[in-house]
Amino acid sequence: MAGKAKKTTKKTTKKPTKKAPTKAAAKKAAKQPSKVVEQQAEPHAQEPVVTPKEEAVETQSVEEFYLSSLAYRIRPLELLEEQSLLRAHRKRQRIKVVAGTLLIIAMLSIGILQIAHTTSPVPKTVAQSVKFPVYYPDPKKLPKGYILDTDSFANPLNQGVQYAVGYDGGKKIVFTVQTKPSDNDLQAFNNSYIPLRIDYKTPLGQAEIGAYQLQTLVSVPINNGPWVIITAPGDINPADLKQILLALKK
Fold first, then answer.
1. Is the Cα dihedral 179, 180, 181, 187 positive or negative?
2. Which residues does 66 contact at the CB level (< 8 Å), separation at least 6?
3. Alpha-carbon gap, residue 60 to 94, rounded angstroms
4. pLDDT in tens, 52-75
5. 246 with 214: CB under 8 angstroms?
């Protein structure tokens, strides 16, 4: 059928029709919120949620830090009392150390004085026989070659002590220590025995050096002490004699 127009059939697509939801489906949909609602309710940035447990831990750490820092500034009463007792103990210890040191020094001083007294060349019996200290030249300060004769100490007269210093192979210097007379008597002695004399000042008193019967005679009135009379050979060295006078001690 050549000349007949072809019949075109227009196909139409039927849109599927939505079925009405059943009752069970409606209940299920009511229980689940729609995705659109969830998207609208979702915030832009979620903040971390602090649970009560974590908040308690954080609060506790702050309190501990505060108390620990406070411990450096506030001292308990017990600690202050302990430190006070410790300071008092240390003070007592220092006092004991100082007292012990002073005691040792005092004992050493007494010991030195006793040694000096016991090493005196003057025999104890001779020293106790007179009422004044016995002056003698220090053996360490004597001129070279002069020796104090420690065996020569004696009491040849009442209230008097005599001893000798040897030198130059047998020569002797005789010392007499006795009670000091009055100033008038001393002046009379000087005028009678050593009218020609020279003055020589010593730490113990002024010495008068002169000559008597070819011998050297020296008068030494000790300040606040006894009277020392020295008889030496006429040819004694004047420098040695002066050194002996400076060596006098008690």
1. positive
2. none
3. 47
4. 544 444 455 555 655 555 554 555
5. no
Give residue for tokens 């005196």: 120
CA dihedral 71, 77, 79, 84 (to 10 degrees): 140
How far is Cα 177 from Cα 202, in angstroms, rounded to an integer?
A: 17
DSSP E strand boundaries for 182-226: 197-202, 205-212, 215-221
Q: Give the bridge partners for 154, in sequence order.
A: 162
Contacts of 179 (CB under 8 A, 6+ apart): 131, 132, 159, 160, 226, 227
Contact 172, 165 (CB under 8 A): yes
- Alpha-carbon torsion, ordered 96, 101, 106, 111, to 10 deg: 130
Q: Which has the closest alpha carbon to 202: 156, 243, 146, 164?
A: 243
CB-based burial of residue 166 (10 Å sphere; 0-12 exposed, 13-18 middle, 19+ buried)? middle
Would you state the structure tokens that stand for residue 6, as one six-digit string? 């072809």
DSSP label of 3: S
pLDDT of residue 52: 52
Residues in the chain, how many? 250
Q: Is 96 helix (H, G, I), strand (E, B) or coil?
A: helix
Report pTM. Answer: 0.55
Closest CA to 146 of 233, 222, 250: 233
Backbone angles phi, psi at 202, to 5 degrees: -125, 165
Whole-number Å distance between alpha carbons of 113 and 246: 22
Query: Which residue bears the tokens 């019967």?
Result: 213
